[in-house]
TrEMBL record:
GO terms for molecular function: transferase activity. This is Glutathione S-transferase. Signal peptide: none annotated. Keywords: Transferase. The keyword Transferase applies. It holds the Pfam family GST_C_2. InterPro entries: Glutathione-S-Trfase_C_sf (IPR036282), Glutathione_S-Trfase (IPR040079), Glutathione_S-Trfase_N (IPR004045), Thioredoxin-like_sf (IPR036249). The lineage of its organism: Bacteria, Pseudomonadati, Pseudomonadota, Betaproteobacteria, Burkholderiales. Residues 1-45 form the GST N-terminal domain.
Amino acid sequence: MHSARPAYLEINPMGKVPALRHGEVLITEQAAVYMYAAELYAEAGLSPAVGDPLRGSYLRWMVFYGSCFEPALVDRSMQRPPAPPARSPYGDFGAVNSLINAQLSDSPYLLGERFTAADVLWGSALHWTVGFGLVPETPVLRAYIDRILARPAIQRSRALDAALAAELSAVAT
């Protein structure tokens, strides 16, 4: 998502959302916002601690989102042919999509049995991209999305989003 409003460009010169200001700290880039919030509220257990054997996998999936999935998705949506493998840091959309499906084919979450902020990020992204037809729906992705959307905290968050959208819509009309 992008905002070209001058006030927002002071927060993030790229105009990208989300951005989070917490006290004097400003965080931009979606995965960074998720990681910061997960570590800020460590008691929720959404981020494996340094030294946890799952930490590397967690970081991989958080960074893979912006460094591989998003660029591959843009290529696909813009109908750009894939770059030669030696010149593409992520391969192509098919390779990225296959990797995501393979990761989720034998476990409920990206880190196996453990639900993390990576699943919040990916569950939301896959919900929207599958819903808009940008990512092909597979039984594996559908089951994953449904698991994420069924979580009580996700349901509460979606209800808050819907209420805010209704409020903003009422103000705009």
